[in-house]
Design goal:
six-stranded antiparallel β-sheet, 41% strand, alpha+beta, 70 residues, globular
Length: 70
């Protein structure tokens, strides 16, 4: 079930959306994508859990992420 929140990043003015890894590289659970179609969505609490578990000092793969409401 999809929620109203997702994790949004930005690099050089390009919005990036956190999505599940794949279809080629599954070495991490998540990756960034410019396409919002496959973004991970859920409750605010679920997005907080992702940030707590996968982000270090607010960054994932050297890109800062914030919880955004869609």
């Amino acid at each position: 079930m999809k929620g109203q929140y997702y994790v949004l990043g930005n690099i050089e003015g390009i919005p990036l959306y956190l999505k599940p890894s794949g279809p080629i590289d599954f070495s991490q659970d998540y990756e960034w994508s410019e396409s919002p179609e496959n973004r991970v969505e859920g409750t605010f609490e679920e997005m907080c859990e992702i940030l707590d578990e996968y982000f270090v000092h607010g960054e994932f793969n050297s890109i800062s992420g914030i919880i955004s409401r869609g």
